[in-house]
Amino acid sequence: MSRKSEELQFLADTATHSIEQERELQLNRNYAEGLKVEVEQSQALIRELQERIQSDDRVSELDVLLRNVQNKASELEFQLSKSKQVCHLLSFECQRLIFRGV
User: Fold this and answer.
1) Which residues of 42-63 are buried (b: 16+ CB within 10 A; e: fewer)?
2) Within 13 Å, how many C-alpha atoms sit on residue 94's CB side?
3) What is the predicted pLDDT for the residue at 99?
4) How far apart, in whole angstroms, are the C-alpha atoms of residue 34 and residue 68?
């Protein structure tokens, strides 16, 4: 093989190698872009799940507050009922005393 044909062969091999490297580089870029999209989607999902967790925590806190309010309302209803009983007893006693002329 002559020197010129060796040089041409070397250039052809180098060009082929360069083309293969460019192709690999493009494949790696596409793969990296795909991974980037997956990471962004995963981050969005993580944010959404964190928001749901916070929302669930708020719901739990509100549920506790609601139970406390319901308990207090039951307590107040019981006290009101007892107060009404006392009021009726006092009213009856008052009428009895008026009737007796005291």
Assistant:
1) eeeeeeeeeeeeeeeeeeeeee
2) 6
3) 87
4) 51
